[in-house]
Amino acid sequence: MAKNNRSSVPDYLVTTVNLLRDAGIMEASHSVVDAMIYIISEHISDRNLAQVLAYFPDYDYYISLNRVYQIESIPPTDQAVLTEALNRLKIAGLDTWLAEE
Questions:
Q1: Beta-carbon count within 10 A of 20 CB
Q2: Is residue 35 pLDDT above 50, yes or no?
Q3: Could you read off the pLDDT of 41-56 as tens digits, one per residue?
Q4: Does 67 map to a domain?
Q5: Which residues lie below 8 Å from residue 16, measured CB to CB, with a gap of 6+?
Q6: Count of CB atoms situated within 10 Å of the CB of 85
Q7: What is residue 63's DSSP assignment?
Q8: Which residue segment(s) compose the domain that 29 sits in?
Q9: Model's pTM, two decimal places?
Q10: Residue 8 gets which letter from DSSP?
């Protein structure tokens, strides 16, 4: 799978790429990104989420898939981090994304 190639993201995943981009995935701390992944992982398959993450620089599909599995097995517990991640996602259009998915 090609990294960072928009054409490698299927049309049905573009809204998820946009959601994470608009939520600031590239600027957020590692712990906030993990919390964002945890929040949306309940609404998208692990492989699709890894494919979305592989669109962004410094993200590889297989490493992202393992990261998704790890986050799902050991969820983030810091309430402040979860709140920041949820706020970022909501500002980026989480509610609209959920309605479309």
A1: 25
A2: yes
A3: 999 999 999 999 999 9
A4: yes
A5: 40, 44, 48, 49, 52, 97
A6: 25
A7: H
A8: 6-100
A9: 0.89
A10: G
